[in-house]
Amino acid sequence: MPSYHYGSNRVQRYARFEHAKPGHGSGAGYERWRSTEYRPHTPGERREDVYVAHHRLLAIVECYPLEEPIESVLDDLSEKDVHHRNGIKWDNRGENLEPVEHARHASITQQEVRAWAEDEKRERERRAAGISDEDICDGCGDVAELLATSPGFAGERCLECARRECDGEPIEV
């Protein structure tokens, strides 16, 4: 590929940032860095595309002390997945990243998927029954005949949630 430029160490000088599209290979949906490197085990021209997930690179600097030797960090991270706490793959803020054991990450991810599926099912059932979002308590998620507001909380609550969450502020129905 003539468009690649190699330095003296036969590594592409400039890595490229990409967003992997869902359904397009490993790491689909995650932002990643791509570089083309010389690899002796690669057949043909001995160049190979190497991809590194952006959130894994950020976890190195955001989740480990700077004093820790890089070899130690990489050894630890090689045995772990990097979890996005809020579930958004492209939200790579340091406070949203957490290195976790693979089994724990799988468990967390499955819990999130089940919770999302339950929410979706509940929403479909509500739409089928003709219930609008304006009839739903923002606290417990149940259908309520009367909804209340208060300076003590954001959104609208059923009377039970409003009493519990108002922090002594007046409640308006």
UniProtKB/TrEMBL annotation:
<protein>
    <recommendedName>
        <fullName>HNH endonuclease</fullName>
    </recommendedName>
</protein>
